[in-house]
Amino acid sequence: SKTLFFISFEPFRGGLDCATVEPLFYCSVSSDLEEKRIPLPSNSQSLQSCTVTVFILFLQIPLRSDYGYKVSLFSHLHQYSRKAPLTQQISIPATVIHPSIVRLGLQYSQGIVAGSNARSVALLHAFKQVIQDYSTPPNEELPRDLVNKLKPYISFLNQCRPLSASMGNAIKYIKKEISNIPSQCKEEEAKKKLLLCIDNYVNEKITLAAKAISKCAIDKISDGDVILVYGCSSLVNHILCEAFEKQRKFRVIVVDSRPRLEGREALRRLVKRGIRCTYVLISAVSYILPEVSKVFLGAHALLANGYVMSRVGTSQIALVAKAYNVPVLVCCETYKFCERVQTDSFVSNELDDPDDLIVTREGKTQLADWQSVKSLGLLNLVYDVTPPDFVDLVITELGMIPCTSVPVVLRVKNVDQ
Amino acid sequence: MPGADKETDLGERIEAFLAELKRGGRGSGETARSTAALLRRITAQARWSSAGDLMEIIRKEGRRMTAAQPSETTVGNMVRRVLKIIREEYARSRGSSEEADQQESLHKLLTSGGSSEENFRQHFAPLKANVIEAINELLTELEGTTDNIAMQALEHIHSNEVIMTIGRSRTVEAFLKDAARKRKFHVIVAECAPFCQGHEMATSLSEDGIETTVIPDAAIFAVMSRVNKVIIGTQTVLANGGLRAVNGTHTLALAAKHHSTPLIVCAPMFKLSPQFPNEEDTFHKFVSPQEVLPFTEGEVLSKVNAHCPVFDYVPPELITLFISNIGGNAPSYIYRLMSELYHPEDHEL
């Protein structure tokens, strides 16, 4: 998107000898723009009658183009190809986007940093870098200028990979903290304060919250349990490892699904600790569920109407668990609670690279040239929403709450702030 | 001696058939046809003098064949059909009406003293020819099943529908292609990992111009709310109206039930089996866990159990309709159809 600024000036006609005065003007309509000082021609005639029109085109973050055929139900969402990262399509001068943000954006789009906790922590660390390297331009106030500096970074990251709910909350927090800095505060002090705020946020909302949640959750794990987990949730893995340290006897069934196959990562982590594991794909979940005593699921976000937004396949596991009367426990930190409401997985979701679904078996790749077939589409959803009647309990650092109490927690948090 | 030659030839053919069964890889329709053809050959070439002898021979061969590949139930079903044919032809030759023999009315149970003495020992010359002719009719019926089912497609699919299916079923493929000739609709295929037969199904359907989308198994519940009908095939239809279908079907059925979406099963009659689902190991079939967790994963493999079941049990409450070559039926009617196809004494081979 391009921002077009049109400034028209008529030099003042006054008693001054216009030939000698060099009027300067600069635009500070938005501090995204660089200052442009344009001296007028010192021809007195032209000064009298000139109207200077200045067009300033400022290239904002270019839009990444969609890839492949999008299924009609999801044509309002973006579908990008992993093989064409954003940085190939734009030539960003380094002054516009901080290099650590560029690096972060690439890591997001290639899937190197994945998982809502990991993405939020990486984002906050990158922002710490940005704040450290930041210097207030003259005639600007740190709070407003810094917030405006962050805007193109955030839209760049959004183009690399749509922001998650946890990242959104983290960004809101940072912006609030920046705006709350008193204007008479010196720059060094302000920066130190902000860095400390960010560290506290990571510590409280993520690290300590995980510890509190594990403590609650370990009470729910009894000896002889068979626990089913889906995909790779850092929080659930943490809980299971803690429970194992505390000498609980249980075994774990890891359910995985194509095309991401994140469960293999969870499997490696659990096996390294020495936990006994079984591994199946999601299509075998109704075979394995009669053996299971509890299901632990992670969440990407908890919505205000009690729905749980999580990796695609979570709602399916909750559905089958309900059919077999197995309790489903969702573990989620409160910083992932968000005020959005959603009732289905169509309106706001994320579409991943459709080429991930292609697989080669026995030398044959069935979908190799799916693009050439007009009526064939591949759908690679990333998230889905689980209705609250499938979930029995949500474990947060504030305690164990039912799914429907999410708006209560949100309200309490808002009152606190 | 020509007689001995015929017998060794027959024996060889049976061995070849068993080897083919053990190897697997054939579709159920093909298996059913080759089983019926083999049974016809046995009837023609084996040495028997009365119906009872023939039934004994066929039962013996049938037991061997089902032992070779227990999960392929069409073999056992064909054997039972042929046994029923033999009984019918015998009864017709004897002159007694079939209806009276078959009915297990309460009155008959009480008055006959509980034993139906039928030792099938009488010799009838035209029996052989009649049985072979009846088996030929059976073969003709088998050949027409897919077309019969596909012909009913237009009664079940309206335009602009979204239909979901899972894996690859030749019956469903023919069904959808037939409907696509006159109606425009959209198909969503769940790929059914780890074998991903859904990919083949999707490419085949899209080549015929049907709008197809492939989704991973994990997205079944997520997209189910926009699906109008679920049409699936199955490996076996069990005696209680339940299914033994490819794994992932139970999840699909539960999701359809949650959204009140009708679940339609396209299954020809030769897939109907007098087995009941049970908890024993005979229900499930497993293949190498290498499909699920490949050897490239390394050390983790030795510390982990991986499972790769092939089939799923779907209870009859989740099924709305069965479409077979003789028409549409509710799951509660399956027991009746079974009593018309097989004789109760043949349920255990």
TrEMBL record, chain A:
Similarity comment text for this entry: Belongs to the eIF-2B alpha/beta/delta subunits family.
This protein's name: Translation initiation factor eIF2B subunit delta
Protein biosynthesis found in the keyword field: yes
Swiss-Prot/TrEMBL GO biological process terms: animal organ development; central nervous system development
GO cellular component terms, semicolon-separated: cytosol; eukaryotic translation initiation factor 2B complex
One protein family per Pfam: IF-2B
Coiled-coil regions listed in the entry: none
Role noted for this protein: Acts as a component of the translation initiation factor 2B (eIF2B) complex, which catalyzes the exchange of GDP for GTP on eukaryotic initiation factor 2 (eIF2) gamma subunit. Its guanine nucleotide exchange factor activity is repressed when bound to eIF2 complex phosphorylated on the alpha subunit, thereby limiting the amount of methionyl-initiator methionine tRNA available to the ribosome and consequently global translation is repressed.
Gene source species: Pygocentrus nattereri
InterPro entries: IF-2B-related, IF_2B-like_C, NagB/RpiA_transferase-like
Location in the cell: Cytoplasm, Cytosol
Principal location: cytoplasm
GO molecular function, one term: translation initiation factor activity
Gene3D superfamilies attached to this UniProt entry: Translation initiation factor eif-2b, domain 2
Keywords associated with the record: Cytoplasm, Initiation factor, Protein biosynthesis
Subunit structure, interactors included: Component of the translation initiation factor 2B (eIF2B) complex which is a heterodecamer of two sets of five different subunits: alpha, beta, gamma, delta and epsilon. Subunits alpha, beta and delta comprise a regulatory subcomplex and subunits epsilon and gamma comprise a catalytic subcomplex. Within the complex, the hexameric regulatory complex resides at the center, with the two heterodimeric catalytic subcomplexes bound on opposite sides.
Keyword Chaperone: no
PANTHER family assigned: TRANSLATION INITIATION FACTOR EIF-2B, TRANSLATION INITIATION FACTOR EIF-2B SUBUNIT DELTA
Top-level taxon in the UniProt lineage: Eukaryota
TrEMBL record, chain B:
Complex and partners: Component of the translation initiation factor 2B (eIF2B) complex which is a heterodecamer of two sets of five different subunits: alpha, beta, gamma, delta and epsilon. Subunits alpha, beta and delta comprise a regulatory subcomplex and subunits epsilon and gamma comprise a catalytic subcomplex. Within the complex, the hexameric regulatory complex resides at the center, with the two heterodimeric catalytic subcomplexes bound on opposite sides.
A single GO molecular function term of this UniProt record: guanyl-nucleotide exchange factor activity
Function of the molecule: Acts as a component of the translation initiation factor 2B (eIF2B) complex, which catalyzes the exchange of GDP for GTP on eukaryotic initiation factor 2 (eIF2) gamma subunit. Its guanine nucleotide exchange factor activity is repressed when bound to eIF2 complex phosphorylated on the alpha subunit, thereby limiting the amount of methionyl-initiator methionine tRNA available to the ribosome and consequently global translation is repressed.
Source organism phylogeny: Eukaryota, Metazoa, Chordata, Craniata, Vertebrata
Keywords of the record: Cytoplasm, Initiation factor, Protein biosynthesis
InterPro entries per record: eIF2B_beta_subunit, IF-2B-related, IF_2B-like_C, NagB/RpiA_transferase-like
Recorded family membership: Belongs to the eIF-2B alpha/beta/delta subunits family.
Gene: EIF2B2
Gene Ontology cellular component annotations, sorted alphabetically: cytosol; eukaryotic translation initiation factor 2B complex
Predominant localisation class: cytoplasm
Region listing for Disordered, in residue ranges: 93-114
Keyword Cytoplasm: yes
Entry's localization field: Cytoplasm, Cytosol
Entries under Pfam families matching the protein: IF-2B
Organism: Pygocentrus nattereri
GO biological process, one term: animal organ development
Listed name of the protein: Translation initiation factor eIF2B subunit beta
Keyword Chaperone: no
